[in-house]
């Protein structure tokens, strides 16, 4: 399936809904989250509709592209770890799967967070 009717992120991929685009690759589109939870908060989505991480697991090649493109977005935005023992910089990649885990848009997406220290465990 390429685009799914009524899917917000399919509409962003198709340029039917505006977004602050950070990067486009052959396989993914990256854009800034409308409600950022960190100084840098970017969403990276496959161009092809896919519901969640479980759906994505049927396509390990695409899963690899999503992770690789998310990491490249982080690097391009200057989020790579730096300083002594990587104490500065750094980023977190998150894929919420299921509403109980915080998923609210059912087109799989990798959140890339950076620009502040991150607590662990996550909430
Ligand atoms: P989830 O909760 O599914 O893990 O993440 C969905 C994310 O999409 C949320 O962080 C939310 O702020 C973001 N979001 C929802 N609607 C829009 C939108 O129309 N544009 C953009 N850029 N982000 C959105
Ligand atoms: Zn979609």
Write the topology of this structure.
Layout: H1 8-13, E1 21-24, E2 28-32, E3 40-46, H2 53-56, H3 60-76, E4 91-94, E5 110-114
Antiparallel strand pairs: 1-2, 2-3, 3-5, 4-5
Residues 4, 7, 9-10, 49, 107 line the site of zinc ion (ZN).
Number of helices: 3
Q: In CATH, what is the homologous superfamily? A: HIT-like
First-to-last CA distance: 33 Å
Helix content: 10-25%
How much β-strand is present in the residues?
15-25%
What does this structure look like?
- This protein has a single domain, classed as 2-Layer Sandwich (HIT family, subunit A), CATH 3.30.428.
- The protein is globular, with a radius of gyration of 14 Å.
- The chain has a 5-stranded antiparallel sheet with strand order 1-2-3-5-4, covered by helices on one side.
- It is α+β, with helices and mostly antiparallel strands and 123 residues long.
Defining key terms:
5-stranded antiparallel sheet; binds guanosine-5'-monophosphate; 3 helices; globular; 123 residues; single chain; binds zinc ion; alpha+beta; HIT family, subunit A
Can I get a quick summary?
With 123 residues, the protein is of the alpha+beta class.
